[in-house]
Predict the structure.
Amino acid sequence: MSTIDPDVDAVVIGAGFGGIYMLHKLRNELGLSVKAFEKGGGVGGTWYFNRYPGAKSDTEGFVYRYSFDEDLLREWDWTTRYLDQPDVLAYLEHVVERFDLGRDITLDTEVTGAVFDEDSALWTVTTDDGARFTSRYLVNAVGLLARSNIPDFPGLDAFAGRLVHTNAWPADLDITGKRVGVIGTGSTGTQFIIAAAKQAGHLTVFQRSPQYCVPSGNGPVDRAEVARTKENFDAIWHQVRNSVVAFGFEESGVEAMSVSEEERRRVFQENWDKGNGFRFMFGTFCDIATNPEANAAAAGFIRSKIAEIVDDPETAAALTPTDLYAKRPLCNEGYYETYNRENVDLVPIKDNPIQEITAAGVRTADGVEHELDVLVLATGFDAVDGNYRAMNLRGRDGRHIDEHWTDGPTSYLGVSKAGFPNMFMILGPNGPFTNLPPSIEAQVDWIGELVAHAERDGVRTVEPTREAEDGWTATCEEIANMTLFPQADSWIFGANIPGKKNAVMFYMAGIAAYRQQLADVAAAGYAGFERSTRQEAVNSENGGRTGLGLATGSRAGREA
Ligand code: FAD
Ligand code: NA7
């Protein structure tokens, strides 16, 4: 055991919604010295990188924000129901400035490694410029949809035009009048397609899987509505924190099959008219995501809309999904309508896959070469664990995170990991599946409280037991298996990345239940965590790790 003063108390990796609030919590509220690193050239995370035409939130603006500070909540206005990328970015930049956080954020700097040293109980963090820092705590706020998925299409390097991923949209790229191709029709692809169709000379959409998409109901919000909403913020946030998906509407308690077909259609139509994907899935009936019959009814309604909206029957058929309605629910402003435009072509690629990318464009298996000036990869993300595995992240005994996550990524409560002392995660694996800022706040607040306890009690290391982590993993699997989501291939379970182990990566019981779990664990003296104190370490030169005080676990039983 050695006692070395660390360079800082805590390192935070990432400066999106999660990292910004974590830095504020640790530095401004707990008084710790903190260094945050961000590989982007600015703060904002998702909202710094995703500058593609059409990029916007699919959570309504009044709940796509922080709620931790009353004044911040009331001073920031919005003018549209959903927030365009520049608006969210401006908001996050404002937060950084308002709480004077910028001076502790090092931009343009990627953390390449973070290694725990048993002897000193410190983390050594290395960055891509060769610098090294030691810290007692490490917080990963590296984003769950932040590592681009770039499929290995043959010939990708041969393309003579501009090749871009939506998560790295270059500032100088203007698609006006150009021949644009887009691969991918997820949330990102559909947003891009709608916007790009209005700018590009011609747009070719390469679609592997058709999507269920409902209207978003986007539009202007006037000052009176903003004022009314602000008046109501206490009630709104109380509801959000005690809801399931935290999207700012009441989830339905009615089972779809308990009402007549006519009533079901009325409810679907009402919510189609109101707009929002999560509202359509969770606000219409309570069992769309769990009961196959209810799911089929919702899917059938959306299919009937596609047939009504799309003029060309062949295109309509190609756009119509036949699988379960069980991916993250999409919403948009006129997605299916876009295919009625003269300048938009749909190329289904499930049965006619992309064979190669050529200098001129994309050649599909039928031999057709689709000529393009710009090729856009809207192919999504190596979600949840992608950015963790990209680092040389090593916990006890020098074991890399990959060695722990051979069967897929796991955690205790979505925020901590056995074998990684004093390390926390924001939106780590098996965190809540919700509108994300309220869940980020719940996690940051909880981590902050745990760190405050640790500081008060002279804790040297705090980490979950392997048993606690296994228990949480089993809970998340059990809950996910009660839903239909595992039956649809999507990033939620890692199915979008070839070779990625399919695994449950979310706690799907909702934010209220999640917050309750966090509160129960804290109230039980941080059940499932074990810790060692500095005093113990001084007393016992072997760095004794017996439980003390709040600790409920011992080291026994943890993996060697
Ligand atoms: P991020 O914003 O992803 O930030 C993580 C940061 O960590 C990034 O800036 C990254 O550069 C940095 N980083 C990662 N690894 C390293 C490293 N090794 N070294 C240094 N820096 C590193 N969620 C919703 O709830 N509602 C929505 O409407 C919504 N819309 C979305 C739209 C798009 C286009 C996308 C891509 C995502 C959307 N999301 C939405 C999810 C969104 O990611 C979260 O809401 C939220 O922004 C996540 O914040 P974060 O701080 O956890 O992660
Ligand atoms: P998604 O939802 O993972 O969508 C990616 C899209 O790209 C989807 O249509 C995929 O088809 C398609 N894709 C991925 N790889 C390929 C290959 N190799 N060939 C052809 N098509 C491919 O990512 P998004 O960015 O849209 O959304 C992710 C989340 O970010 C979203 O939920 C929001 O929260 C923001 P597939 O469906 O797999 O057949």
